[in-house]
Amino acid sequence: MMAAAVAGQRGVKVVLMDHATKIGEKIRISGGGRCNFTNTALDGGDASPYFVSQNPRFVRSAMSQYTARDFMNLLREHRVRYHEKHKGQLFCDDSAQNIIDVLFAECEKGGVQWRTGCSVTAVHAVNDGSGMRFELETSTAGTWRCAHLIIATGGYSIPAIGASGFGYTLAEQFNHTISPTAPALVPLTFAEWGKQGWTELAGLALPVRIGTAEGKKNMSFDEDVLISHKGLTGPGVLQISSYWQAGAAITLNLQPDVDLECALCQGKVGAKVQLDTALAQLVPNLPKRLLAHLLSKPDFEKIAKHKWADVPDKALKQLAQQVNQWRLMPSGTEGYKKAEVTRGGVAVKELNGGTMESRLHEGLYFVGEVVDVTGWLGGYNFQWAWASGMAAGRSVSD
Ligand SMILES: Cc1cc2nc3c(=O)[nH]c(=O)nc-3n(C[C@H](O)[C@H](O)[C@H](O)COP(=O)(O)OP(=O)(O)OC[C@H]3O[C@@H](n4cnc5c(N)ncnc54)[C@H](O)[C@@H]3O)c2cc1C
């Protein structure tokens, strides 16, 4: 919609085709119905640290041409009220529908024609005498020809509302490489979660430092995690899921502000209390139910009721590690049904970052989630959709 509106307002004749009958469904369901439409961190500085891609620097050009401030200005023009919630995340005061209405109004301004409920089933490159054209076969609107074609079909996430792999298939048809795709911003699952008693703690949320345990560059986030019936979810887990590779471990620091090894080993001298009592005092912010669960594990069960001063440093260090550097091995994710986005996609090295045009096929553009660009949780993905759409919309012609 962003690309269509911008191109239309430049006088280009635009037809927007979508197989969904209701347009902008992901916007409508986003941010708990209030759409986290951008993040103030994307203010024109270097945007690349907030994105996962084979080459995160690819986002710089489009993101500097259209910043969070530009989108905020657009909302102000349309009198949409919004507020900041957490770490620069901007949400509508009223409803995500406001954003859809803005984009729709901008498309109207650009004279965009709509073909909704219309699936693009095939695309061919043809030479009609006046040059190369794309010929589109559609399910309900016959055959169309155009000189410039923008693919904004998103990723695999949430198939129930129209997601399809069409963009990837089309990209491959035009010889593009697809960086491996995987669900991202997604809850992580763990084998034998129930057997280990974690499901009894389902619903428990706590702030942690969650990180990748392996890889060249370790990432970590200070965010909440939530224990669920299948594993872990919540903002911290969604963030780290975008960096997690199957077979790798993650680490959780349940008390980032407390160096528990130091506190336990140094504080025990002359202490008369039991270890479990001392621990509850040293980590008062750790939910009691979680602490009790950790201490019920075979490694700690025996020492929990011992006098703190008598517990050997080796055992205390092990316990501290469980709190400050808990290593967990996810068995998988909850998949595309639950993923907010798809990681991977059309390889960025084959696209022009300033226009989003294919370097392999003139006139073909890829924008938004179908590209190998995945933003952090917090409005980064929508800002990428707006900015990359804007870049393509400014470049296309009839
Ligand atoms: C539950 C949820 C909440 C989210 N919340 C946020 C948030 O708060 N902030 C944020 O920044 N991001 C959020 N995201 C991510 C964000 O929605 C996406 O990154 C963004 O929508 C991508 O935009 P897009 O235009 O590339 O693709 P999409 O929004 O997925 O749009 C693709 C469109 O292409 C159509 N299409 C697909 N195949 C075909 C075909 N063959 N023919 C015709 N049409 C086709 C689809 O029907 C769809 O309308 C959320 C995602 C989900 C699933």
Main sheet record: 7 strands, antiparallel
Report the uncertain regions: none
State the distance separating the first and last CA atoms. 17 Å
Query: What strand line-up does the widest sheet have?
Result: 17-16-13-14-15-12-18
Quote the beta fraction.
15-25%
**What small molecules does the structure contain?**
flavin-adenine dinucleotide
Query: Which oligomeric form is depicted?
Result: single chain
CATH architecture of the largest domain: 3-Layer(bba) Sandwich
Task: Tell me roughly what share of residues is in helical segments.
Answer: 25-40%
Structure class:
alpha+beta
CATH topology of the largest domain: FAD/NAD(P)-binding domain
Key phrases:
BaiN-like, seven-stranded antiparallel beta sheet, 13 helices, RsdA/BaiN/AoA(So)-like_dom, Helicase, Ruva Protein, domain 3, Ferredoxin--NADP reductase, binds flavin-adenine dinucleotide, FAD/NAD(P)-binding domain, FAD, flavoprotein, alpha+beta, Elongation Factor Tu (Ef-tu), domain 3, three-stranded antiparallel beta sheet
Word description of this protein:
This is Ferredoxin--NADP reductase. Residues 183-341 form the RsdA/BaiN/AoA(So)-like insert domain. InterPro entries: BaiN-like, BaiN-like_dom_sf, FAD/NAD-bd_sf, RsdA/BaiN/AoA(So)-like_dom, RsdA/BaiN/AoA(So)_Rossmann. Its cofactor is FAD. Residues 1-394 form the RsdA/BaiN/AoA(So)-like Rossmann fold-like domain. This protein has 13 helices and 21 strands. The strands form 7 sheets. A 7-stranded antiparallel sheet has the order 17-16-13-14-15-12-18. A 3-stranded antiparallel sheet has the order 2-5-4. The model has no long low-confidence stretch (mean pLDDT 95). The two termini are 17 Å apart. It folds into 3 domains: 2-180 and 342-395, FAD/NAD(P)-binding domain (3-Layer(bba) Sandwich); 184-255 and 328-333, Elongation Factor Tu (Ef-tu), domain 3; 260-321, Helicase, Ruva Protein, domain 3 (Orthogonal Bundle), CATH 1.10.8. By secondary structure, it is an alpha+beta fold. The protein has helices at residues 2-9, 25-29, 59-65, 68-77, 97-109, 166-173, 235-241, 260-267, 275-282, 288-295, 298-304, 313-324, 380-395, and strands at residues 15-18, 36-39, 51-52, 82-84, 89-92, 113-116, 120-127, 132-138, 143-146, 149-151, 178-184, 188-189, 205-212, 220-227, 231-233, 250-253, 326-328, 332-333, 341-346, 364-366, 374-375. Bound molecules: flavin-adenine dinucleotide. Flavin-adenine dinucleotide is lined by residues 17-20, 26, 29-31, 35-36, 119-120, 152-154, 157-158, 162-164, 166, 340-341, 368-370, 379-382, 385.
